[in-house]
Amino acid sequence: MEVRQARLMFFVQLPSNTTQTMNMRVLVLRPYATNLTLTSQYPLQVDASGWHQLLLGPEAQFACRQGHLTLELVTESQMAHSSVILDGFSHRPFVAARVRAGGKHRVRRRGINCQGGSKMCCRQEFFVDFREIGWHDWIIQPEGYAMNFCTGQCPLHVAGMPGISASFHTAVLNLLKVNAAAGSTGGGSCCVPTVRRPLSLLYYDRDSNIVKTDIPDMVVEACGCS
User: Fold this and answer.
1) What's the pLDDT tens digit per position in 88-129?
2) I need a labelling partner for 78 at 20 to 30 A (CA). Which of 7, 194, 198, 215 fits?
3) Domain 108-226: which topology?
4) Which CATH architecture has domain 1-101?
5) What pTM was estimated for this model as a whole?
6) How far apart are CA 98 and CA 107, in angstroms?
């Protein structure tokens, strides 16, 4: 995975007509090291409450790709740090990154992602560009996301395999169907999402306030037979 661009998003709350000086420190974990190393600092001034963003440099982007990035945002005043930089559920700082997957290093596991002419239950990768559906005027970040969806057939002899069924209960039920041991077990199996994860959105609400929230079950991670 190549990190093309990364930026820190953070929410600041200031009294009226004040300016706050801050200092962001980028710390990384070097290979075979146990302590974090300070690689760079970014001084900045904030003069209004709300969401702010800071574009991160190459060192931070590299550390973000390696998964060993630590950012410290410190206020340089007598004001309490916790009252200036908010970190509650809806104001939690986060890093928004634009990445590109390296094609030659990608590994697709059989039975998870759809391949070629596969007709069995699998996860089909699908990217949604918010600009294409007209949502770019109110969604700030991300510019789109991989929603993915489930497709394919679930024959009973396959749907009865624990690794493909949506649950162990489903596996047992489908085996009963195969063996005709239950005459009223219902219809056939369907290919459905078995694992989902949330998507973090930064957007404008109806009052033009910038809001950050995590929407559950937005990204399909895995599929199985119900």
Assistant:
1) 656 777 777 776 665 544 444 444 788 877 788 889 898 989
2) 7
3) Cystine Knot Cytokines, subunit B (2.10.90)
4) Sandwich (2.60)
5) 0.52
6) 20
